[in-house]
Model the fold of this input.
Amino acid sequence: MSGERLFHTRAATEEDLRHIVRLDEEAFPTAPYPYFVLRQLLASFPEYVFVVADGDVLVGYVLSTPPDGARSWILSLGISPPLRGLGLGRRLMATSLAHLRARGVRRVTLSVEPGNTTAITLYRSLGFVADPAGPYPDYFGPGADRLLMSLTA
Done:
């Protein structure tokens, strides 16, 4: 079928940094990661950053941490706003979670803005459970409340 999009998921490379920065700014316009943080995360944990592309254009990314014992964190999942709802976040999360499980991770934690019902629904569908003590007020500073969610494999 002509015009069909062929999204593909792969490990991020150094050349992807500027695109990850762009995607982070698009996905989180009020609180994107500073450039230097994304730079250091990609340099420090290159095996734990995955991207999804539409041809040659990056349209999403996921960042996680290496295992600490059998635990890890998803630090960020960002999808280009016009392409949300196409299953790209699910695809990236599945890739990241499989990668983490293969490295012995048995518990994955993430934080999400309590009003982001789309993300919360995605995470719940993947088996994440909200911390019953949350949401945590001012988790990331004044007015930046977060809900913590965990997945135990």
Q: What stands out?
A: The domain at 7-152 is CATH 3.40.630.30 (Aminopeptidase). The two ends are 39 Å apart (CA to CA).
